[in-house]
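My current task is to audit a protein record that another person submitted. I have pasted the whole thing underneath without changing anything:
***
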Amino acid sequence: MSQLDTLPAPLLPAVPQDKWRREQRAFRHLFPELLKTHRGQYVAIHDGQVVESGSDKLDVAGRAYARYGYVPIYVSLVTDEPLPPVRPPSARLLQLEKPS
C-alpha cells in the first residue's frame, strides 16, 4: 500500500464585498435599535444608515431610489417574527376543454 500525501488547502482570493451585502450587514448591525424605533416598518439602508422608512416596501424603495439613484439599497421589514416564505409563481399549462 502506498502512502498518500496531504497537501494544504489552496489560498483563494477574497471575494470583494458588494454594496448590497454591505447594506445588508449594516441592517443586521442596526437591527436591535431598529426594533425600538421602526418595528413593523420597512427601512431602506444606504451607506450604512436608514434613509427611508414606511409601511409599504415598494414605496420605501421608490423614495430611496428617487433620492439616491438606481444604486444597491437594502430594503427589509423590521420585525422579530419570522418572515413568511416567498412563493414565486410557477408556469402552469392551461388545458382548454374541447368543445363538444
Notes: The beta strands are 42-46, 49-54, 74-77.
